[in-house]
Amino acid sequence: MxxxxxxxxxxxxxxALALTFTRADLVAYAHASGDLNPIxxxxxxxxxxxxxxxxxxxxxxxGRAIQVVTNWVGDPTAVIDYSVRMTRPVVxxxxxxxxxxxxxxxxxxINDDGTVQVELGAVFGDxxxxxxxxxxxxxxx
Amino acid sequence: MGMxxxxxxxxxxxxxxxxxxxEKISAFVKALGDTNPAYxxxxxxxxxxxxxxxxxxxxxxxxDPALQLDYSRLVHSDQKFEYLRPIRVGDELTVSASVExxxxxxxxxxxxxxxxxxxxxxxxxxxWSKIVVRGPEA
Lengths: 141, 138
Prior knowledge:
The complex is a heterodimer. Chain A is α+β, with helices and mostly antiparallel strands. Helices cover 23% and strands 33% of the residues of chain A. In chain A, a hairpin with a 2-residue loop joins strand 4 (115-124) and strand 5. Chain A is elongated. Chain B is of the alpha+beta class. Chain B is 17% helix and 36% strand. Chain B has a five-stranded antiparallel sheet with strand order 1-3-4-5-2. In chain B, a hairpin with a 2-residue loop joins strand 4 and strand 5. Chain B is elongated, with a radius of gyration of 16 Å. The relative contact order of chain B is 0.25. The model of chain B has no long low-confidence stretch (mean pLDDT 93). Chain A binds chain B through residues 19, 25, 28-29, 31-35, 58-60, 62-64, 66-67, 70-71, 74-77, 79-86, 132, 135, and chain B through 24, 27-28, 30-34, 36, 38-39, 44, 46-48, 51-52, 55-56, 76-83, 85-86, 128. Strand 2 (79-86) of chain A pairs antiparallel with strand 2 (74-83) of chain B, so a sheet runs across the interface.
């Protein structure tokens, strides 16, 4: 089913995603992205700089939040802009369960030029880890 | 010591070309845990893949002695991308980074770096990264 702009209304919620962050995910992201900062991998180092534990890369959280939009649209190349503020870190303990972040999205604006703006949410426990998160997609009319 | 405001508007030389391969795209998609079938053949990159090249280009700027930026107190606070087209396998990406803004925010300083990502001569993505450099503890 192709998503059409005529089927949308402002305030409509996108299917939410609950995604797990484990230490292994952080190591994989560090290598795939080239961001080898030890605060994302080394618990002793993270604590030595005043963090409660290892924290996820903000860009990993950003990269996962947009999946709410790209899963909904289907075609990830429909995204024409995307921005976030990284308000709080996702703390990742050394456990098999890791940390779960709940990602949400809703239609914020439908534009005359065939683009749709989506507002995104990312919550870890009761803490908002992303703020001012929004993406614009171009959809079929 | 704060950042050097004379660097506002400074444009850094283009980064070394970065060849986008299916292996690099697939590793990034896997690390994101993204199961969208659009990425299955590793030919199109996810929206945040651009950070691989923009962060690297900004690292060069962050360590430029002329900028007088205390790297140990730096936090990446905001990220924005505007896409002219998706990044695809075979793209040879270069990044032109520039200092768009430096200003105080309480006892901290914030700076915005603009990163234009080109494949050859074609602009494909523009990124903006805002950083906070924490001031001395009160």
